[in-house]
Amino acid sequence: MSADLAPVLFVNARLIDPAAGSEQRGGLLVRGGRIADLGPGLTRDRAPEGARVVDCGGDVLAPGLIDMQAFVGEPGAEHRETIASATLSAAVGGITTLVATTSTDPAVDDPAVVDFVLRRARDTGRVRVLPMASLTKAREGREMAELGLLQQAGAVAFYDGARSVTNALVMRRAMTYARDFDALIVHFTQDPDLAGGVMNEGEFALRLGLAGVPREAEAVMLDRDLRLVALTGARYHAAVLTSTLSLDSLRAAKAAGLPVTCGVTINHLTLNENDIGDYRTFLKLRPPLRHEDERQKLVAALAEGLIDVIVSDHDPQDVETKRVPFAEAEFGAIGVETMLAAAMRLVHAGDVPLPRVLAAMSSRPAEILGLEQGRLQKGAPADLIRFDPDEPFVVDPDRLHSRCRNTPFDGALLQGVVKLTMVGGAIVHEAA
């Protein structure tokens, strides 16, 4: 990421800028860690002295992806993932910025822990790592964390992971405090008293003999939060939405001008409860995979722009916690390395245009977090990916770079191979 890196000229590329919604054929010049120029006039004979020329052969050149929800393991869960392994997986998958969740031990509720994550990322990370900090102390939902100090230390948002703050007064105080610091509240919207099951509530759960989680568990908590947003004026991001009940509430809140955004996981966009099949624990997720009708509504909401971002919800789990009966297995799946390729399913099915998919994984997260990245424009940081959206491959868990292998796409045929990933002008991954 140094400014003294040699210039790189990409030529013969399909340039997609999701921030502007534009697409053109041409080249792009990187100098000093930033985009120096781009357009149809940039060809090989315009290469500066000493520059490396990369012929993209018609591949897409786009801003690097920003994953707003990924577990990086450190501190405390290095047996599941490390910053080194998570960022290697991210680079291979085209992600140039990982926003780290707070489900660590200790929780990220102290400025020293924020500093630890930032230092470890600088020392061992291949891509940018931005830590979120805990919304409440020890993520217990009882006492608000020191939001101001945590933000000064480098936290980009506040989130208790897959734990909802059930105490409305605590949430109101946190939102009021966050508003004064212009901080972003991220919340997992699931009422734990209603969400005692292990998969989506419905006919399929009954046939499998498993306890279900109703859609209302999500909608009830979201409705409460949206009323608190109206009361406090805080910036609010619903981490993961999965149902039409939630989408209806979100639509009304946005129409009323509330500062609210939301995410959806790539799993909930591309898989449904039927994929669980014969008790496949790698598809045991929190929130659970929903009915196919719900999945289709999520895809339509993404295409419309109602859903703001796509996240991997990368959550590595080791063999001991997944190779057990479904009801006893841990929730979670890995996803940073396959997020882009899985999203190409939506593009190839004609459900969502490629620029819109890329916007949900780059420019829109950058806007929400206040980052410079996510743009294919002069002066923007040179966080870039080159990929072929059509090249097929079969997901082999043993070839993935995460420390765990709990991918829901085990053996799936996907399309979309990342050939080069650049962060701040430095190439951090290049396919052989």
Automatic annotation (TrEMBL):
An example Gene Ontology biological process: pyrimidine nucleotide biosynthetic process
Keyword annotations from UniProtKB, A to Z: Pyrimidine biosynthesis, Zinc
Domain named Dihydroorotase catalytic: residues: 58-243
Ranges in coiled-coil conformation: none
A Pfam short name: Amidohydro_3
GO MF: allantoinase activity; dihydroorotase activity; metal ion binding
A cellular-component GO term for this protein: cytoplasm
Domain Amidohydrolase, residue spans: 351-429
Highest taxon listed in the record's lineage: Bacteria
PANTHER family registered for this protein in UniProt: ALLANTOINASE (PTHR43668)
Protein name as it appears in the record: Dihydroorotase
Taxonomic source organism: Methylocystis echinoides
Lineage of source species: Bacteria, Pseudomonadati, Pseudomonadota, Alphaproteobacteria, Hyphomicrobiales
